């Protein structure tokens, strides 16, 4: 991908920026810059309404093919849309897991019936999804999942039992894609399947997990003989690992550029405060701000390089460093924010005691190096898959 954009792309940028400026007003004004990581608990119903509003104007799922309800935008235009959305303060997407993960996976691997059933609800902003991957004993080690599913031939349904954890927005979701072990006695990445499971049923219990920020966008989800139709399996039984890995490739997609614009918004706020309270006069603080700016530019250029390859969910070597880079960078930005705030980082004006934007950001960044694959696991992936070094010795069980 070229770092510059064509005149046609820049005209598209103006179109996006104009629409956002004209529509993030009135009842939606309060949503600007809200609902991102660490703030996902804010305005859930209003953000759902915003996404329906976007869908009616054709601004949801913009990178999907037109035949599946999207705009079929080029990679360049998808980058532009995500950048302008974040620049304008567009709220965090309630449906980002459906739009960015479930939808592309169903498009790539689902049956025609599955595409007709599930894609319209995502594209029009009326059905929401969560991700059933991590478990108490299978976080970054996804191949260690214990959740089981068996096909009941008499009812024509999969019966699912187990537990998932760190399930973002499960309490707001209509569906969950679940990695479950469908082959008894199987181990590791073998014998797994990718199931689409309705959340509104007696066999599912969602329990919130309260975080340092005092919020609970993450959840535990318990499956006690929960069911889903036999047809709600993506691929064949046993294909779960292949599909799960492709989905993680989609996770490293174009939305990463929007994430970086959110980071830039946070950095701009830190710089504004540093200039106002005098912290910018400290040479050490100025150097850390400069380092943060350089790190963000490197992040952008690597993301553009990463997006230059296949869009089928396969991970290039460049993509394997992305999570480690941004997680470490963002955690350091959180520390910088607190040092710029000084004593105010530990103070709140008066009750009810709600965290400021930067306080919440700092606390949430403590989890950045853990969720989505811990830094330790990411380093192993880089060493083994990108650099083709010998695998880490495993202890015999």
UniProtKB/TrEMBL annotation:
The keyword Oxidoreductase applies. One of its GO terms (cellular component) is plasma membrane. Residues 6-125 form the Acyl-CoA dehydrogenase/oxidase N-terminal domain. Gene3D superfamilies: Acyl-CoA dehydrogenase/oxidase, N-terminal domain, Butyryl-CoA Dehydrogenase, subunit A, domain 2, Butyryl-CoA Dehydrogenase, subunit A, domain 3. Its cofactor is FAD. It comes from the Bacteria. Residues 238-386 form the Acyl-CoA dehydrogenase/oxidase C-terminal domain. Residues 130-225 form the Acyl-CoA oxidase/dehydrogenase middle domain. Keywords: FAD, Flavoprotein, Oxidoreductase. SUPFAM superfamilies: Acyl-CoA dehydrogenase C-terminal domain-like, Acyl-CoA dehydrogenase NM domain-like. One of its GO terms (molecular function) is flavin adenine dinucleotide binding. Pfam families: Acyl-CoA_dh_1 (PF00441), Acyl-CoA_dh_M (PF02770), Acyl-CoA_dh_N (PF02771). Belongs to the acyl-CoA dehydrogenase family. PANTHER family: ACYL-COA DEHYDROGENASE, ACYL-COA DEHYDROGENASE FADE29. This is Acyl-CoA dehydrogenase. It comes from Endozoicomonas elysicola.
